[in-house]
Amino acid sequence: MTVESFVGAVEALLTLETMLWLLAGVLIGIVVGGLPGLGPPLGMAIILPLTLPLDPANAIILLVGVYSGSMYGGSIAAILINTPGVSSSAATMFDGYPMSQQGRAATALAISATASALAGLLTITVLILFSPALIEMVLAVGTPERFLVAILGLAMITVVTRGSFAKGILAGVAGLLVTTVGIAPMSLDQRYSETMYLYDGIDFVAVLIGLFAIAEMMKLAGQEGGIAKGEVTIDRAGITEGITSTINHPITVFKSANIGMIVGAIPGAGATVSNFVAYSEAVRSSSDPDSFGSGNEIGVIASEASNNGTVAGSLVPAISFGIPGSSSTAVLIGGLLMHDLRPGPSMFDPSGELTLTYTMLLALLVGNVVILLFGLSMVTRLGYLTKIDTDYIIPMVVVLSFLGTYALRINPIDILTVIVFGVIGFYMVRYNYSVIAFVLGVVLGDIAEENLYTALQLSDGSYMIFINPFEYGRWLSLILSILIVALVFGPFVKRWWENRQSA
Amino acid sequence: MEQDDTVGSVADRVRNPLETVLGERPTMEHVLLLLFLVVGVYMYQGASEFAPDAQTFPRLMAGGTAVLAFLLLARNYLTVVGPLVGAGLGAYLVYDGATAFLADDGGLASLVAGGVLLVVVIGFRERFGEALESFVAEPMQVMGDADATETPDEDVEEPATVDADEATAADAPSSDAESDSAGMYTYEIDDPKGPVVTGVLCIGYMLLTFTIGMLYATPIFVAAWALWARMDVLRAVALTVLGFASAYLFYALIQDDIAEGWLTGWELPAPDDLLGLWIHAGDLLQWGVVLA
After folding, report:
1. Are the CB atoms for A487 and A156 separated by under 8 Å?
2. What's the complex ipTM?
3. Could you tell me if A447 lies within 8 Å of chain B, comparing CB atoms?
4. Nearest-neighbour CA in chain B from A463: distance (Å)
5. How much is the pTM?
6. How many helices (H) and strands (E) does chain A have?
7. Cβ neighbours of residue A64 under 8 Å, at least 6 residues apart?
């Protein structure tokens, strides 16, 4: 059945319409990633409402195309103007920009395209090969465990994200609270619906657009720079050198891609972390660590291979349990939900959406080939992206955000939601509250509540179902509960123990 | 730490937080936390009106939001406030659990949790306050820079008096402390007016949308933005036309209801309707000449 689903996915992908949506997604992604200040979650959030008329497969392919493309696109601004188009390309600046200053911009851009594409191809292939094992694992998880996995994801994000632990939890809990407005899952009660416009709850697409698009535009409006000050010379001759250099460092590509994949699978860590981890590892394992930061090609390879490797990794918790590994996968989950696709077992069920899951993975595979071809053929033209003034970008992003949100349901509350959550998102980021945890809460709310409700029904309302395997026979629930407690209280116990030892 | 319960030390312990409160400078973070607190309390109260099955989840989340927002608001005084909050919460849980237990044998978990919390708060109030302080204020990091776990939280407000000129700079999170972080996304604001103007223009865009519909509100918003950004006329016009074209594409291809004002019910003629009026241009001109 799995093989049949895979063959079905290949057939679905190889249609002209699907390939065009994939191509469009990757190209939009490269442009969005290349424009300083924008990034994958913002690009995907704006595209999200526009996917409504599409069938679910094409909609998801368009979104993953934008995701994958923008991961590569982010390196363009990092290399050419020392400003990462996306935060996941920050480490690319360290060596990419010095290469550009040395007149080797084309080489750096070619390395970026090749390393991104190779890492993407490698990690997606690994994911496809391991998917049967993943399917077994996901299908073995029951309702109480799915609720606990959601809480575990939330706990992980609050721990991984730097800052106050309480702030992280507050962000996640507040996100979950947002989803309690409207009809209660299972019991179908109306909650907090003071006006008829809230009967369907607060639209998560509007929340995502507010948090990612409006908040980002408010931030961008307060920043200067990000635009190329002068002409950047991009000589076509360096392209072959860039490709050769990447191919000559297969271990760096392999290692960084896998770091990206593993870190990407940790909720909240995302490409920004994997980017630095892979770069640090490249420096650590180098025989000439001092050359990093002054135009070492390996630095660019490591950074770019890792951030594209993250895409595959972050998809694992996203489609398995509905837990986004990053902001981008949160929007992707939003896309799945918008098209009535529930992340979880149904995405791996051969009689469910397994064909769509494989189509999505194969689309990413082909998307990486598009990145390679486009990236290499357009190297000399990519500098244009860095010259677009943010004064032109901001009003157009706001316009597209408003239009996309309002056109979805013609509900005035949605416009208000975009603005309110835009402002909240702006200040949350400013004061170091995890927006990812908040988004996770918003995306996970219904799933978590539904699973909590069903689990409590199984136990006649007793919370002991999560911790008492002797009565309910759910050992995995106990393990997950212990993991959550360890994750939440571990750092405090560790510090207390260290203080005790030093005293 | 041993506790000194003399009158003087008690007075000190009351005076110090009071001085901190009076010296604390309100920031937008306080507003954000107050918003979470008010919404949390309101939704917690509101949840009691729902059917039992539908109220568990919102009560848990609303309660969590309110308590965490309060703890963060009171983070500079947690050694004093923390035990009081813990005792209050414990008493509430005991009462809630006992009521449920007497009614239908439920609420045992709540009763036990409340009891344990009360015992901890009463028995170890100093340590409880310190633990809460650490939970709320100190940064944790599993991944990324190890130094981050050692540095104090830069968001804890200094109880110093800050003059107006310093306020904006102090309001911004410390970039030095944050720039080394790989696990988060931070930024600096060069022009504080930018976000404010963008927010105000967005609100204006919303109000216009509710009045005259989004089709015509869009070019007005873009033109207003271009005016604020002091774009040259040609580019401003081009951007406004692009904005209008985007709105028109949405109107024509995706959803024509965007042209109607929700509050007023007004729907201004669409461009194609306006173009249709050109047919009557000759008549209009004729009437104009007659009237003249």
Report:
1. yes
2. 0.79
3. no
4. 8
5. 0.78
6. 21, 3
7. A25, A311, A332, A360, A363, A364, A367
